[in-house]
Amino acid sequence: MREGQAQVIHRLDYQAPAFWIATVDLTFDLDPAKTLITAKHAVKRNPAQAHGPLVLLGEELTPLRVLIDGEPVSFRQEGHELIIEAPDRDFELTLRNTCAPEKNTALSGLYTSGGSFFTQCEAEGFRRITYFLDRPDVMAVYTVTLRADKAKYPILLANGNLLEQGDLDGGKHFAKWHDPFPKPSYLFAVVAGDLVAREQRITTRSGKEHLLQVFVRRGDLDKTEHAMNSLIASIIWDEARFNLPLDLERFMVVGVSDFNMGAMENKGLNIFNTSALLASPATATDADFQRIEAIVAHEYFHNWTGNRVTCRDWFQLSLKEGLTVFRDREFSMDMAGSDSARAVQRIQQVRNLRAIQFPEDAGSMAHSVRPDSYTEINNFYTATVYEKGAEVVGMYQTLLGREGFAKGMALYFQRHDGQAVTCDDFAAAMADANPDSPLSTRLEQFKRWYSQPGTPHISARGEYDAAAHRYTLVLSQRNGKATEPQLIPVRMGLVGHEGQALPLQLEGDIEARGTETVLLLEKAEQTFTFINVLVDPTPSLLRGFSAPVLLEDGLSDPELLTLLRFDSDAFNRWEASQRLGLKRILRAVQGGHALQLDHAYLEAMRAVLRHPQLDAAFKAEALRLPDAAYIAEQLEVVDPQAIHASVEAAWDQLAQALRGDWEWAFEAHQVKGGYRPVAEDAGRRALANLALAMLVRESTRTGEPVWPGRAYQQVKDANNMTERFGALAALVNAHAGLADAALSHFHQQFAHEALVVDKWFMLQARAPERDGKVFERAKKLLQHPGFTLKNPNRARSLLVQLCNMNPGAFHRADAGGYVLWAEQVAAMDAINPQLAARLARAMDRWTTLAEPYRGAAQVALQRLAERSSLSNDVREIVTKALE
Ligand code: PHE
Ligand code: ZN
Questions:
Q1: ipTM computed for the complex
Q2: pLDDT, tens digit, 9 for 90 and up, residues 765-799
Q3: Is 658 helix (H, G, I), strand (E, B) or coil?
Q4: Ligand 1 centroid, distance to 261 Cα (angstroms)
Q5: Which terminus has fewer CB within 10 Å in the chain: N or C?
């Protein structure tokens, strides 16, 4: 790991492996201090390379012996390579090695957590278990035998089906598993420990029976019902929507509290961060329930998009991730039900894309959906590969329609089941299945979405000719990170003054297009002329956010207000609310003056809040101000404190001006009866929580005790975490006098629930800064007995929340945030490089900062870069930031 051999890997250097491994037979003698691994591989030469040694990869391993066809052979080690003299024919390779699971704090490979064994092999963890051709295009059939102490590790799991189990001498037992599907090593998994399972037998459409199991630590079983329900719903959905059945007799899901990511799609044995699996009404919020449903679905959907068809190399990561995020989004929208609930999901996706992926795509780590090079692949599990990748997949569906997209999927599986393929293969299947579509003639251009980084900026200018009844729309695109124009589907409509959806007819078209259409912007600039337009229209562009772009349409306030009131597209109604707020914040920030919200804006927000037809969930989204990170992306030079001050002022004024409306909203949206994690109730709770936050904010400002008192009572009495945490957040975020008491009450009540304690840290680290108090508190929390860098969830809940998610607290004129960041990145790097590299990314956008932040950030980066002991993970991030 720290051998200073950081190497840049290039996509175009791909070569097929010199050997294939057809079968793998592994035996584990599990011991936390020293686990012995014996491997038997059937190795075949790739006929294209008839001679030469076999080069396997291994990290942090001790090799014991190497046999070919049962005979010892000579081998040598060079860095992470094990170089074995190999005959010019097929052979059986036997390896023995050890590793040290309990010393493995990087949580990649075989490690222990809470006294049990777990593995994490994506992307390159398998080589930390045994020497291997650890690359996704080497697919083998695995048989795995686990041997361990029976009392300590009563449950022994691996991929596939259980062949045999039984007792051994010395209090040990064994289990033998076989996975019939060839798979790349990154999908390998074993689990051993004292776990309990929720089980369910189901019969799928084909009449096949399956056993579903969710394994967790004793005591967590009551938090697994939601995950099980989500799994069953996912299985049913994938069969119904894409014709993709569950292909294993047994499907297992396991929770672990030390995990670097959300979850992992190992074949038949998904491993989950407990934060992405466990939920009860008492410990999890609506947002948690929703996220768990999405992640359970995501990992399940990988069984086809990722496992049955996998990636040829890691540059193709978005082939499985972008596609699987797209699939889990479609699933979540179908589960949400109503059109309004679907729109709210879309709004949340876009909010997240803008707050995280847009800055990424403009910053030091900018890369295309299919990157061209990397030093450390772990650094490329990014919002670009996942979320922008999902947007790209969504654009296929926009261009092909739902049916055309389904046809493309069917062809993709027909061609590639059992193979390791590329993004080009996916694109070809989509186009070939739809030869008459606009995609098939523009495929090469569409594929620039994979190769070009950067967020395209679209500008739109419309002109109405009242005499000729013509409306001319000029769309142009530019992308500071790329040169070639991209193919951008712009879903749109024209809205009249009274809100009527105007019929669309393009000059030159034979047929009219109804009231909504998709324009294809394919050139740098293009003009679309609509005819027979009888009134001066307001254009509603990029409906549903039909492409991941920044749109500058220059709409006036009256036009935005028209869209906010009337647009038939709920997403664009929301967008109008955001644009109205964004304009005002930007004006104050750029003008260097205090923000003062005008009557028209406040009345528009009041109208949304009081609207008799809009759903509560939608209202909560429309009334929320844009995120600081998205605001920053609109500016050339970023003063984080100016943005912070404006956003806080806007919240204060919304709280004050709408005070009576917030009271009404709070009372009117109380959910009666028991807690159910359904969209409708969740929407009411979201709006009630926002209202409570506003009321506590306003009361704290004026020194009135009633609402803070009610919030405090709700922290104590709520019968579910959503309301309890909402009230706690209201107090903490408003810096209310009762916040401290509420925090300690909450902590005491949930001290034994790690995931709730994470929330407690997170809330304090992410509170809006006021006079440096949030930063000081976060610093103190580093010394809290419950804080540790070793548990990723806990470390993230304090440090990532503070440094990466709370610009107002992090960017300080005294550079205190940057000093703390550099120290903590270094400390974390010695424990867990992957995690440290995430924290390191807090500085991605430092070059756009105003002084004194910019200069101080540079110094902190340089200091960190000077350390000789950095991992490749952190080194790559810091080097790119300084380039
Ligand atoms: N492949 C996992 C997922 O999306 C993410 C992951 C990557 C987990 C690397 C662990 C390590 O779904
Ligand atoms: Zn995934």
A1: 0.99
A2: 999 999 999 999 999 999 999 999 999 999 999 99
A3: coil
A4: 6
A5: C
